[in-house]
Amino acid sequence: MIKIITINFLFAAISINTLVAQEVSNIPNNDSLNKIVVGLKKDVDVLKNLKVTGWVQAQFQIADTMGVKNLDGGDFPSNSNNRFMIRRGRIKFTYGQKNSQYVLQINATERGVNVADMYGKYTDPWLHAFSISGGVMNRPFGYDIQYSSADRESPERSRWTQTFLQNERDIGAMASFQPAKGNKLNGLKIDAGFFNGTGIAVPGTGIPAGSTAAVGITGVNGFTDFDKYKDFISHAVFYKTTKNEKIRYGLGTSYYNGGFALQNNKIYNSITKDSLGNNIWVIADTINKKFKDTKAPRIYYGIEALFSIKSIIGTTTIRGEYFMGTQTGKDNDTRSPQFTPNPASAMYIRNFNAGYVYFIQRIGKSKHEVVFKYDFYDPNTKIVSADLNGKNGMKEGEIKYTSVSFGYNFYLDNNVKFMLNYNIVTNEVTKITGYSRDLKDNILTIRMQYRF
Fold first, then answer.
1. Is 23 exposed, middle or buried (CB count within 10 Å of its CB: 0-12, 13-18, 19+)?
2. For residue 135, what pLDDT is reported?
3. CB atoms inside a 10 Å sphere around CB 242
4. Whole-model pTM?
């Protein structure tokens, strides 16, 4: 027995010695080892420059009635007043080097997948204040658009933003000025650029190619630019925080000058009174002026303000924007066109105003937050509800909307947020068929958001 154990031990020792010898012979020399280390360092440096973030918003909604038309995630199916949906599913890749940056953000929901952002940015290497960007990015107009959906305290942006600047983003080029920290002008940011004006296509919005509604128009699929006109957009803000970081305040202004090619001479650009004293639309003079192929105006002005203070009751924030200007749209729809308008459609040039205000209160140092939001959009400031009788162009496109929403947010941790929000929407009572009373289109949203 002892002999057998001894023989086995000798065989094991010989095997181990052979394996060790083989491993030693496989160790690279110093030059090879250095090459391996340098290669690994390059790979690590590349990964250090890449940042990956994202979030998903899963929600359940209940509407007052079946088939409600709304801007809280899109219209309900005709036979439904409740739904589960992925409102947004984002993953964002940011690759940054010393003076340049590349951003790619993908949005994926049950409705499809689309590119949310895709742009390159270069910043000057001397002052680190001037930069240029090109690609698919947020339109530089106002606070509401630039504020991330992951941070926003209510489910959706304002009605005006969703009507005039659908899907927030567009394709274009932009120059920016933003002094770095330590500069006396730090807090100032100025953006200005030219964009297609059509926005980007998002699954579940717009008109699908091949539908009857798409007959006679082009550019439906991807909302590619459909005319020669480009839109100029600019935004200037100044935001500061006190040294003790208890107070934050700021003001800003925005300007948008754009438009699209008119498809005919059926243009209504003035309002007069009929024999009964009612306001009616009047068609433009086409004897002395031709409108076809000229530019339909889209001119917007915006101002914004923010004030936030930390106190014993928690952080109190008041934030708001006001918009005014000129918009060209149809008699029943004031949305900015994302494809060539139907050649048979008449166009109406309106003066509008709109705005919103938030009151946000974080309760002490807790994870609880209450939110109040007031939002309004008046598509035509020259008329009143009594004028809306469905005749002479006084149709759905003239109806004023206001909404009041009440919300509660619970920040479980740095990654998870729960949102409960009830939005009360009110439309003008008119003589237009279907709008003789306030529609029952209030919506309750229950949302869970996870971000990383």
1. exposed
2. 98
3. 11
4. 0.88
pLDDT in tens, 246-284: 999 999 999 999 999 999 999 999 999 988 888 999 999
**Residue 248, SS3?**
strand
**Beta pairing class for 82-96 and 50-63:** antiparallel
Q: What domains can be seen in the chain, in order of their start residue?
A: 2-451 (2.40.160.10)
When computed from its CA atoms, the radius of gyration of the chain, rounded to whole angstroms, is: 29
Phi-psi bin for 41: left (phi > 0), alpha (psi -120 to 50), beta? alpha
The amino acid occupying position 326 is: T
In Å, how far are 137, 206, 224, 262 from 219, measured between CA atoms? 20, 11, 5, 15
What integer is the mean pLDDT of 85-108? 97
Cβ contacts of 277 within 8 Å, gap of 6 or more: none
Q: How far apart are CA 245 and CA 290, in angstroms?
A: 58
Give the pairing type, strands 279-283 and 267-273: antiparallel
What dihedral do alpha carbons 191, 106, 112, 134 form, nearest 10°? 40
> What confidence tens digit (pLDDT) does each residue in 324-342 have?
999 999 999 999 998 888 8
Alpha helices in 50-149 (DSSP H): 142-146
Nearest to 382 by CA among 269, 250, 285: 269
pLDDT, tens digit, 9 for 90 and up, residues 235-256: 999 999 999 999 999 999 999 9
